[in-house]
Amino acid sequence: MAEFKTHLTGGMITGISIALAGNLFLGLNPVQTCAVFLMGSAGGILPDLDSDSGKPLAILCSQLSVLIPALLVDRISRDVNNSPEFLISYFVLSYFFINNIICEIIKKVTTHRGIMHSIPFAFLCGGGAYHLFMPSGRHMAIAAGAALFSGCIVHLVLDELESVTIKFGVIPVIKKSCGTALKFRSSSGLATAFIYILTIFLFIKIS
Ligand SMILES: [Zn+2]
């Protein structure tokens, strides 16, 4: 497994590249450019959501616990008064629910280098980001989806590169972990089917 710093750097470089391309060719404004950069960076660490310990999971969970409620607040507050008591209850409870319950469930049900380290999972993330940013227009949705997808793919490639080491300065040795990151399915048929069904459903919804 490549180190957290390596993954974050890979994600940030991916994010900067796609954000700049989006700014130059799709006419994204500075805030949108920044958001695309952040999506690429998040993609760089997202597949490690399945590693039970350490920084990636802690960082991702705490960020998702703030980001998801923030992104959904407009839709949810349509039917309720946007009062201070609603906002406090909504954000505190959502944070607790996602950070302490959802993330704990993810920890329990996922195995490292399982389906989250796979190409269909990268497509699912990209499709999810596209869908999420659609209210900001097609160009923003494409850039955000491409950034998250590419960040995930870069993560998987970096993990695969880590599975080759050089011994005695010249002899390439392939570790057992080779092929466990950049793959189309996991050893769990159920998890694989679940991700494929979700991805297909998302892409049908998008098209
Ligand atoms: Zn990984």
Task: Give an overview of the whole structure.
It is a single chain. With 207 residues, this protein is mainly alpha-helical. The protein folds into 2 domains: 12-47 and 111-206, no CATH class; 53-109, no CATH class. It is 70% helix and 4% strand. The chain contains 7 helices and 2 strands. The protein has helices at 4-25, 30-45, 55-76, 84-109, 119-133, 138-162, 189-206; strands at residues 164-167, 171-174. Strands 1-2 form a two-stranded antiparallel sheet. A hairpin with a 3-residue loop joins β1 (164-167) and β2 (171-174). α1 packs antiparallel against α2. The protein is globular. The site of zinc ion (ZN) has 6 residues, from α6.
